[in-house]
Amino acid sequence: MTARTIRRTTAKSRIAAVGAIAVAGTMLLTACGDQTKNNADDSASAKASDGSSAAASPADLLPADIKAKGVIKVGSDIAYPPVEFKDDSGKVVGIDPDLAVALGKELGVEFQFENGTFDTLVTGLRAKRYNLVMSAMTDSKERQEGIDPETGKKVGEGVDFIDYFTAGVSIYTKKGDDQGIKTWADLCGKKIAVQRNTVSNDLAKAESKKCTGGKKIAIESFDNDLEAQTRLRSGGADAGSSDFPVAAYAVKTSGGGKDFQIVGDQVEAAPYGIAVAKGNDELTAAVKAAMDAIIKSGEYEKIIAKWGVEAGAVTEAKLNGGS
């Protein structure tokens, strides 16, 4: 996965800062946008037996059918380390899986991750193959409203987001061979490898339109971020791009740290959100309450610190905070 999103300002993206993994430089990560009120906020309270108002537990807020099954199905593109990926034994690990375990304890259910290509996850959510999507997906107004960011046309009913992290997008090149690339404008006349339907992909398209002298950006898009990294590693592209934590993790781990380097500053900081299909207000309220609970308990902080991404941490779960 890569900057998993639709455009952020011009093209909205996927993740943010890796602290322990951080390659160098200061990370400017800020949560974007005001929070949208919806019925999920009102669901966070319930009547106690004596008729007084009392805060409901996250588990109390879950829809009855999910309580009965004891399972929440999660759609995810499980090829985006360190957010979600498979370890050498084939186990699904990463920031999102660890958060899902903590959320499951609050809700009294098991989160089951199901692998899918990133650009099909929202469709799968609408088709009810999944209850949620956790996949470093950037919360944007376009996604909330079901708008295609390129055409501006409505293509679906949209989704609601529970925001839980903040991230920006980075460019990386082969180590020792940046070809003068420091900014997105420097990519004109060069080739970039990105994951399809991500912020990085959208940013490259938007920047290419600005290029002059016929020097457009050649964009190669792939099903997942690991394929894009392979393309760059083999010399088939001049640069790659993904959310900063993912880019930083690749720089740290690929070839023992000898394959890649990050160039320039990260851009387009925006929130990652857990996506829920419109109309599922009970589930949205339950997941938000569970996220707030693990933030308050300190479990969220432990997970974020484990993966070295403290700079992208949030202090509360917000609804539809993307812009």
Number of strands: 13
- The proportion of residues forming helix, as a percent range, comes to 25-40%
Please state roughly what percent of the residues sit in beta strands, choosing from under 5%, 5-15%, 15-25%, 25-35%, 35-45% or over 45%: 15-25%
Rg measurement, Å: 19 Å
Alpha-beta content class = alpha/beta
From the spread of the alpha carbons, the general shape counts as globular
Low-confidence stretches: 5-53
Order of helices and strands: HEEHHEEEHEHEHEEHEHEHEHHE
Distance between the termini: 21 Å
The biggest beta sheet reads: 6 strands, mixed
- Per DSSP, the total helix count is 11
Give the rounded overall mean pLDDT.
86
Oligomer: single chain
